Amino acid sequence: KANRLFHPENSIISVDGEKIGGKRLGIIAGPCSVESEEQIIGIAKRVKAAGANFLRGGAFKPRTSPYSFQGLELEGLNMLKAAKAETGLPIVTELMSTKHIDAFVDDVDMVQIGARNMQNFDLLKEIGKTQLPVLLKRGLSATIQEWLMSAEYIMSEGNENVILCERGIRTYETITRNTLDLQAVPVIKKLSHLPIIIDPSHAGGYTYLVEPMAKAAVVAGADGLMIEVHDDPENAWSDGEQCLTPDEFDRLMDKAKRLAEVE
Length: 263
Ligand code: PEP
Ligand code: MN
Description:
It is a single chain. By secondary structure, the chain is an alpha/beta fold. The chain has one domain (about 10-260): TIM Barrel (Alpha-Beta Barrel). It has 9 helices and 10 strands. Helix 1 links the parallel strand 3 (about 25-30) and strand 4. The radius of gyration is 17 Å and the shape is globular. The two termini are about 30 Å apart. Its EC number is 2.5.1.54. Keywords: Transferase.
């Protein structure tokens, strides 16, 4: 179902009145983790003013260490709802367990399946039984075929609202957090009709890499970007070293939108 052979036109996915996959870039921005209502509302207002059309913020966090902050969970979802009520931005947030699917169907506009759960087949099948738009991140060491098969798990259950997100893969390189596979954009466009966006924040792992790779993604033909933005990066509860400040995000948006027009 993800294969372009059987669906020659590009898919455009509707998410609460917004669209991903059309001419306009889909820009998802916000902090790695929701930390408080004031934090998420403040950042939501800033990213909206800069041109984001979706708000991200992790409430359930897939941390490498069990001793790291695990997210505010359902309380975090409520804070995202408050930020949506203030700004109108649709909510994108990660689901880690089938036990929270009902809460996500009620409150979330696009559910993120994170890199670490890309092959959690039970989770994929259950989310496939809903019509909730799904942002499916590429696994840490997943091939493009494996990634498309994960999309297939969701789509074969009846949910065709899938958007792919390349967020860097694990290679022998250690200077950057991951290695951004920009070739995934034209490869996915060749093999599939699904939209693909790029997350340069998790790919690079450092703020200075975000702008050049975001611009390159737009020129490569990505349908959108996911960017981590925090108003106080040094004190962020997760991923502070890779986020942009709202001012930096604002400047990036100007540049990215101009590049998108040239394309
Ligand atoms: C995230 O978006 O905060 C995240 C944990 O991403 P990934 O699954 O790509 O590591
Ligand atoms: Mn993060």
